Amino acid sequence: MVADGGFTNRQSIIDMDEKGVDFIGSVTDTSSQSKARLLSRGIDPAFYPDKFKYDSASNTYTCPANKVLTYKGKINMTGVVEHRYAAKTNDCAECPNKTRCCPALLKGRGIVRRENTSVVKAFLSKIQTPEAREAYRERGSIAEFPYAWIKEKIRLRQFRLQGLLKVKMECLWACLTYNIQQWIRLKWRDPEVQPGI
């Protein structure tokens, strides 16, 4: 199954893996959104998370001002584990860089290190392969036209019915209509195919 970025998230990656589906999708880059959030909090780019040095031996981070952030625990989320680190309150309160590093935080600076689960890691590795990239590149030419046609010609921009069974029926009729019209376009006008047969 190939899906675009709107349908590619950790939950769908896990669900497809559990069902044994070879799933390929586009992963959205959220780095610009993360930087925008840091900027809105008044954090100087010199104190962005990537400027903090991680020491795997002690499982700590060191900030640009050489203060140590210790491990505070983890939170298990869908497809990812968030490891949380925090500096001592006194270290941040007395730091001359507080207004640049954590101006809105009373207790001081914290860092989150995200670690994807094995299923998500395997998916991210797979979509970097030439075969996966080629399969994803084909998706646009195959899938986008039917979507556009169904939205424009049938005007199915939202379902008119309620309930899963009725929505499936409405979707089936839209897809059937599309397929019949494509069959007419491709075969009906073929001189070898006689009308009425």
Structure description:
Helices cover 43% and strands 18% of the residues. Strand 4 (60-62) and strand 5 form a beta hairpin. Among the domains are: 42-117, no CATH class; 153-188. The chain is built from 7 helices and 7 strands. The strands form 2 sheets. Strands 3-4-5-6-7 form a 5-stranded antiparallel sheet. Strands 1-2 form a two-stranded parallel sheet. It is an alpha+beta fold and 197 residues long.
Topology:
Layout: E1 2-3, H1 10-18, E2 24-25, H2 31-40, E3 53-55, E4 60-62, E5 68-77, E6 80-87, H3 89-93, H4 98-101, E7 110-116, H5 118-126, H6 130-152, H7 164-188
Parallel strand pairs: 1-2
Antiparallel strand pairs: 3-4, 4-5, 5-6, 6-7
Alpha-carbon Rg, integer: 26 Å
What order do the strands of the largest sheet run in, or round the barrel if closed? Answer: 3-4-5-6-7
Query: Termini, distance in Å?
Result: 35 Å
- Specify the biggest β-sheet: 5 strands, antiparallel
As a percent range, the share of strand residues is 15-25%
Shape: elongated
